[in-house]
Design brief:
Number of strands: 8
Radius of gyration: 17 Å
Shape: globular
Strand content: 15-25%
Number of domains: 1
Structural class: alpha/beta
Number of helices: 6
Distance between the termini: 24 Å
Largest sheet: 3 strands, antiparallel
CATH topology: Rossmann fold
Length: about 200
């Protein structure tokens, strides 16, 4: 729905689409035209409807036979296109994330090696709970961004949201999403069902 709204607002001219570069924070191990592909969904709901330059859209080759090599190549593409800000890690203007009921974000699932990855900015990862391979940004790359928006919807996420926002370190310990840098650059967007168990008031 967010992508569809962005597509509808394209005519406002507020987004300089000719200057926008689009990367993907994670991807499933399927071809780009597959119904489960994040790229496929983004293309059908947003990218096919806005004047973004085709060469500025960078799908993840997550169906590659050599996923580790493909992840390394994608990292090099990020490094080539995205500027750094005085450090070695490229700094995206904005990274948009979601969250699963288990507290995963991007394809950084609980108990997987990718959660603790600090050397690679893009990594491949087998996710046992899914029985599938994924390609994903790592937390160092995500946390270097100028802005990170975490969009969470649905009552099945309410317990994880409450743990993320709560004061109990033990409750947060197993949530990969808790590794996000929740500072002034972090924006959390919740719908009412996702916020249901959290202790704050909405005016």
């Amino acid at each position: 729905m967010l992508y569809q709204q962005l597509a509808r607002s394209c005519a406002s001219g507020e987004v300089p689409w000719g200057q926008v570069q689009v990367f993907f924070g994670d991807e499933r191990d399927v071809p780009h035209d597959h119904v489960e592909s994040n790229y496929h969904m983004a293309a059908k709901t947003l990218l096919d409807h806005v004047p973004v330059e085709p060469g500025h859209v960078h799908p993840m080759p997550a169906d590659s036979a050599d996923l580790a090599r493909a992840a390394a190549d994608y990292e090099q593409n990020v490094r080539r296109v995205v500027p750094t800000a005085g450090g070695e890690i490229p700094r995206f203007d904005c990274i948009l994330l979601g969250m699963g009921a288990d507290g995963h974000t991007a394809s950084l699932f609980p108990g997987t090696e990718a959660v603790g990855e600090t050397g690679k900015l893009v990594t491949s990862n087998f996710v046992p709970v899914l029985g599938r391979n994924r390609m994903t940004f790592s937390f160092p790359l995500i946390n270097a961004a100028r802005s990170v928006i975490l969009l969470v919807t649905g009552e099945d996420k309410a317990a994880a949201v409450a743990a993320l926002l709560g004061d109990d370190p033990a409750a947060r310990a197993d949530l990969p999403v808790a590794r996000l840098a929740m500072d002034e650059r972090f924006i959390l967007v919740l719908d009412a069902p996702a916020a249901r168990r959290s202790e704050f008031r909405q005016d």
